[in-house]
Amino acid sequence: MCGIAGIFRMQDSGAVEQTLLERMNQLQFHRGPDEGGIHLEPGVGLAHRRLSIIDRSGGQQPLFNEDRSVVVVYNGEIYNFPELTRELLAAGHRFRSHCDTEVIVHAWEEWGERCVERFRGMFAFVLWDRNRETLFMARDRLGIKPLHYALMPDGSLLFASEIKSLLADPGLPRDLDPLAVEDYFAFGYIPEPRSIFTAVRKLPPGHRLSIRRGQPLPEPQAYWDLTFADGASAPAGVEDELIERLREAVRIRMIAEVPLGAFLSGGVDSSAVVALMAQLSDEPVNTCSISFGDPAFNESEYAARVAEQYQTRHQVEAVDPDDFDLIDRLAGLYDEPYADSSAMPTYRVCQLARQRVTVALSGDGGDEHFAGYRRYRWHMDEERLRGLLPAGLRRPLFGLLGAAYPKLDWAPRIFRAKSTFQALARDSLEGYFHNFSILPDALRSQLYSAGLKRDLAGYRGIEVFRRHLANAPEHPLSRVQYLDIKTYLPGDILTKVDRASMAHALEVRVPILDHEFVEWVAGLPPGLKLRGHEGKHVFKRALRSHLPEDILYRRKMGFAVPLAAWFRGPLRERLRAALLGPTLADSGLFDQGFIARLVEQHQSGRRDHSAVLWSLLMFESFQRQVLEAA
Q1: 463 φψ region: left (φ > 0), alpha (ψ -120 to 50), beta (else)
Q2: Disulfide-capable partner of 209 in 44, 220, 332, 589 (CB 3.0 to 4.6 Å)?
Q3: Which of 2, 99, 288, 350 is flagged as catalytic?
Q4: CA–CA separation, 300 vs 290, rounded Å?
Q5: CA–CA distance from 484 to each of 230, 381, 481, 494, 621 (Å)?
């Protein structure tokens, strides 16, 4: 796992500033503390920080082909590199190392832009082909590894694994993108291709970008998409085949020349990965988990049971329930506003894992692909109700009920019908977006200043979903799974894991996101994923001989922190100082009177505004830690 950065003069071959390139590289030292390297030639500068995993004595980057006309910097792992190496050797290519990086330059020579279609793994890479005067960049299909780029006013193109490296150039415009601000307060993160900065873009998952010197910057091109086979019938032996396919995905991710382990939360997904790792390993698997004092958030006893069943070398660490010191540190890690509070325990579990291992396998992706989130059940229930009434009757009826029904944040969900009524008054896409949003449309409008609303010119975060809708499947469950795979998975889940793990120079591998396994799962009927109110139906059935029933069928807990209590207790004054202080006020983005009402309603106990208050707290921290320091 590594960090990459570079500068490309798009219109000429003038000199690249070496000191800037070195500064960009050094800002990502945490991503690759083992080695660093740069390559400079007229009009091109490439830089790399290395965390050595495979072929530790070789594989230094930037890495070249035989005649040094092609050079690459790369972050990730290509798991099928042995097979590709054999194929490329047979085609006449010569290899000097035994690492997966060298496969990229020869695959480019052999297959050109289509080389990425041959790679199985997680990757973000940029290569320069001197003979073609072409800079080529690509990102893996699911977006496990990040890649950012910016076109500078002088025509140069900057790129890096993290935005902080781009900010090393004082000439990079720091203007905030108002559409990204809206996206952030709708989703809690900023979905691709936007970033918080107007000048900076994220290369979307499953996309490549080929840039010829002397030509304008083109739009990225998709090389992969996920197809759902909604009308398919269940294949014979589906449960056995699922286990065998996942076993293969786990097996190829256990190849490393450094200590290897796994996260073990006690949930279905991480427990499945650990079970298969244990069956594939001659040595006990290294596992780690964290525990919380609050039993509502503590899964450590379930993790311990799985660890005992498979005799893993298990490490548990209790996390301070008031782990406030991380708040400002997170803003520096993410380089832009990021509001998933589970980033805090994720940071701590990565820190714990790095004490014993350099590579850790995780269970990320299971909820998206096997319909494990509760919101999928709620969405399907609402879809059935929408089908009972025509839109002309449903919209005014449920719109009236949604307006009249009180907001009962303190009550069990069955009595919190206001949000459900509001969702039922909308169409399917609007309803899912409403349930998903940190803050509903009407309240986001109250949050924003007149100036921000003018800059938005009517733009709403739902446009992110609409951008993907043309390629989304028809089935209502598959449709929202597809939307999450395109937005929430890379923008929230995988971003969280990448930044938290790389902060500790830890490589995290995600077998459930093996693209061949993902494609196979997408071809299963929706009813095998969500059966009634039971998510992950076929996954759990396939795991019955590997894990106990109460691990498979217990209530999902998640990886959350007690924000509501924090903001009424130990963080009470800090919240008020941050949200009602000068930083947010001076930004000109928000209605400070509305923020004051949110704080008062929450701290009085009348409402639970913890999600939006946390989002504002992290935005304020971003402004101080990143924007003001840039």
Answers
A1: alpha
A2: 220
A3: 2
A4: 7
A5: 17, 18, 5, 12, 27
> E-assigned strands of 86-184?
121-129, 134-139, 148-151, 156-160
User: Is the CA virtual torsion 540, 273, 205, 141 positive or negative?
Assistant: negative
Mutual angle of helices 610-622 and 178-187, in 10-degree steps: 140
For 515, list phi and psi in degrees, rounded to 5: -65, -30
- The pair phi, psi for residue 105, each rounded to 5°, is -65, -40
Q: Please, are residues 23 and 34 in contact by the beta-carbon 8 Å criterion?
A: no
The mean pLDDT of 109-121, rounded to a whole number, is 98
The C-alpha atoms of residue 92 and residue 106 are separated, in whole angstroms, by 10
Helix axes 417-424, 428-436, angle to 10 degrees: 150
Domains of the chain are 2-222 (3.60.20.10), 226-419+460-561 (3.40.50.620)
Closest CA to 194 of 217, 178, 210, 206: 178
State the pTM of this model: 0.93
Residue 27, classed as helix, strand or coil, is coil
**158 C-beta neighbours (distance < 10 Å), count:** 26
- List for the chain the helix, strand, coil content (%; round to 5): 45, 15, 40
- The three-state DSSP-derived secondary structure of 218-269 is CCCEECCCCCCCCCCCCCCCHHHHHHHHHHHHHHHCCCCCCCEEEECCCCHH
Residue 9's beta-bridge partner residues?
Answer: 156
Dist. CA 494–CA 497, nearest whole Å? 5
DSSP string over 386-424: HTTS-HHHHHHHHHHHHHHS---TTS-GGG-HHHHHHHH
Can you name the residues that pair with 516 across neighbouring β-strands? none
Element (H, E) at 554: none
- Mind listing the pLDDT tens digit for each residue in 403-461? 554 554 544 444 455 556 665 667 788 889 988 899 889 899 999 999 999 999 999 99
Residues 60-82: b if buried by 16+ CB within 10 A, e if exposed = bbbbbbeeeebbbbbbbbbbbbe
Q: Is 115 a catalytic residue?
A: no
pLDDT digits (tens, 9 = 90+) for 594-614: 999 999 999 999 999 999 999
Q: Which residues contact 394 (CB under 8 A, 6 or more apart)?
A: 386, 424, 425
User: Rounded distance, CA 515 to CA 520, Å?
Assistant: 9
pLDDT tens for each residue of 37-60? 999 999 999 999 988 776 555 568
- With vertex at residue 514, the alpha carbon angle to CA 428 and CA 280, rounded to the nearest 5 degrees, is 135
